[in-house]
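User: Hi! I have a protein structure encoded as tokens and I'd like to know what sequence might fold into it. I'm fairly new to this, so please keep things simple.
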């Protein structure tokens, strides 16, 4: 049996569902539900590497920063990303450990706090596009603009901070992740797209940006020469004409068609777009299969019965 590990990327939106407040009990319920089928696959001998998003969670951390700023110094964005890696990583490890134990599988799960190098000349730094954190009043937005933040007015909602979303270049802890896999330990790595760092004068330092977790996951899958990469999110697959009433689900998609539909505007930036880009990059550099599905469909999707499969 081919025992190349499979990378499974879990969307941040699968952990706090839209409309929920984000109580930790809710997050644990969703995380445990996601880990159940993953534990089953591991018990059957599949090697797995996990990564995850952090959208709603890091949004809450930033809001907490804001609310408490008169009492405790606010933390920079890259530290908030690190905090989210730690929190989600701990919750995921605990949940996976428990699900494995329930079915009598004895394995160690280990969360790797992961830094990802980005290019300090990445054009994203000149043109921040990723909205993040709470909505602000016009007055507060003005103060933040003076302080150097990029702010954008969202009609009806208020002002939001825009941050750069540079491309991931290098996974700083790659050797640690490889070593865990070799020792049959299940890594949870590159959470929230990784802590963005730039290299200057031979040292790395954190920078306020967010890296798309799908693109970081794709980089990880390529660096580890994996064959399969699964993206779990809150839709059951990839659709054409997603916004319209005659949307159509794609069961299987080739790289060529994925590129065509991406250029045709079917996959928006910030949601399905980066997943498709991540899949294309992975499949063009040796990957064999990408699956996009819901967490609860994972096992059926691997069997080809659910989700969307993207192939070279
Ligand atoms: P995650 O946290 O998993 O990264 P995202 O919100 O970034 O979740 O991406 C998933 C979302 O992409 C879905 O909830 C859906 O609303 C949206 N989406 C946009 N275009 C499409 C499409 N063509 N097919 C399916 N979903 C799409
Ligand atoms: Mg996303």
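Assistant: Happy to help. Inverse folding works backwards from shape to sequence: for each of the 312 positions I chose a residue that suits the local structure. Here it is:
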């Amino acid at each position: 049996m081919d025992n190349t590990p499979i990378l499974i990327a879990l969307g941040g939106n699968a952990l706090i569902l839209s409309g929920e407040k984000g109580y930790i009990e809710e997050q644990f319920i969703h995380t445990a539900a996601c880990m159940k089928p993953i534990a089953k696959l591991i018990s059957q001998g599949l090697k797995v590497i996990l990564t995850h998003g952090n959208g709603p969670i890091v949004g809450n951390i930033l809001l907490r920063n804001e609310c408490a700023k008169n009492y405790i110094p606010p933390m920079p964005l890259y530290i908030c990303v690190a905090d989210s890696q730690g929190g989600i990583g701990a919750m995921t490890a605990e949940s996976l450990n428990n699900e494995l134990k329930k079915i009598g599988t004895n394995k160690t799960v280990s969360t790797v706090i992961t830094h990802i190098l980005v290019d300090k000349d990445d054009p994203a730094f000149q043109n921040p596009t990723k909205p993040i954190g709470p909505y602000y009043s016009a007055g507060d937005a003005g103060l933040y603009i003076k302080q150097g933040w990029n702010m954008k007015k969202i009609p009806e909602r208020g002002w939001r901070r825009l941050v750069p979303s540079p491309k991931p270049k290098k996974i700083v802890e790659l050797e640690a992740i490889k070593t865990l896999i070799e020792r049959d330990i299940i890594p949870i790595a590159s959470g929230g797209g990784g802590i963005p760092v730039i290299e200057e004068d031979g040292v790395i330092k954190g920078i306020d940006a967010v890296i798309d977790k799908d693109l970081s996951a794709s980089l990880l899958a390529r660096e580890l020469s994996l064959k399969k990469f699964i993206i779990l999110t809150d839709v059951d697959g990839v659709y054409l004409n997603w916004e319209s009433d005659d949307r159509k689900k794609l069961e299987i998609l080739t790289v060529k068609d994925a590129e065509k539909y991406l250029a045709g505007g079917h996959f928006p930036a910030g949601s399905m777009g980066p997943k498709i880009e991540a899949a294309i990059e992975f499949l063009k550099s040796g990957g064999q299969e990408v699956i996009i599905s819901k967490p609860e469909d994972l096992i059926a999707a691997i069997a080809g019965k659910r989700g969307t499969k993207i192939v070279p």
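A useful reference point when you look it over: The two ends are 22 Å apart (CA to CA). Feel free to ask if any position seems puzzling.
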